[in-house]
Amino acid sequence: MSSAFSFNQSVIDEFRANGGKVGGPFEGGDLLLLTTTGARSGVERTTPLGYVRHDGLLMVVGSNLGAPRHPDWYHNLLAHPVVRVEIGTEQYEAVAVPAEGERRDRLFAHVVNAEPGYDAYQKKTTRVLPVVVLERAAADAGADAPAPVRTLADKLLEVHVWLRAQLRHVREETDAHFAALAAHQGPGEPPAPGLGLQIRQHCLAFCQSLEFHHVSEDRHMFPAMEAHHPHLADAFARLRAEHRTVARIQEELSALLADVAGADPERFRTELERMSAELTAHLDHEEETLLPLLGGVPFPPVP
């Protein structure tokens, strides 16, 4: 076990045992725990990091103490944008979005103003230190308060509401991206390639969450329900077929997101519209089929 790992684990243990308060070099500082999913291993990794708040944003910096390579947690969040944040005694999921261009420079200036040590780290390396905004992955700002979850029907509906909101969010960001491209595009010029990390991270988070939801239904919920309602075999077959259709579109989107700088924006928007149409129809159909069956099943399950 490396000394760095041992030190990090001791900080994590102290943080969780004392409501987010630690001693040593972090004493009195703003510290959070960031849990990412390994880009290759798929294993969760927790890292203690300093953070800076500015104008409602929560930011961490991939300084790696000024080393020539980005830290592992940064590579992890590019592969799996949904992360877990712990601050004090609070814990929640967030979507990790690295800032780009002028926005990154502006946010980094605020970071340095709050914590001058990051400027020293930047001067030690030729790489641009990433500034990552941790956007809370709860319901969209301004949305109605979530309904209480008492049955499995409520839980299914909660997940569907979240998926619809995230898809709407990605579509709005894509529309804004196209509007910005058009504003800087000369007459007769083709649109510039690329999507930007903001769209990439949100769309990838949505796609991965959608895949997890559908795989869980196919492997667990559908077989259990079908055993109790064999007369609905055709309905479940249709739902599985819809999952496969959505998965094919999801694969197309994920392939485009793999090359964020060179992605074809028009093709991305076309696939996103296909996803919106197919997924909306599927969620509507699934709710019509399953909610009446799940309304009497308590959630969480009664032991």
Automatic annotation (TrEMBL):
Q: Which InterPro entries does this UniProt record tie to the protein?
A: F420H2_quin_Rdtase (IPR004378), Hemerythrin-like (IPR012312), Split_barrel_FMN-bd (IPR012349)
Q: Which reaction does it catalyse?
A: oxidized coenzyme F420-(gamma-L-Glu)(n) + a quinol + H(+) = reduced coenzyme F420-(gamma-L-Glu)(n) + a quinone
Domain of life where this protein originates = Bacteria
Residues forming the Hemerythrin-like domain are 153-294
Q: Which GO terms describe its cellular component?
A: plasma membrane
* Molecular function per GO: coenzyme F420 binding; oxidoreductase activity
Of which family is this protein a member? Belongs to the F420H(2)-dependent quinone reductase family.
The UniProt entry, under PANTHER family, shows: F420H(2)-DEPENDENT QUINONE REDUCTASE RV1261C (PTHR39428)
The name of this protein is: Nitroreductase/quinone reductase family protein
Organism listed in the record: Streptomyces telluris
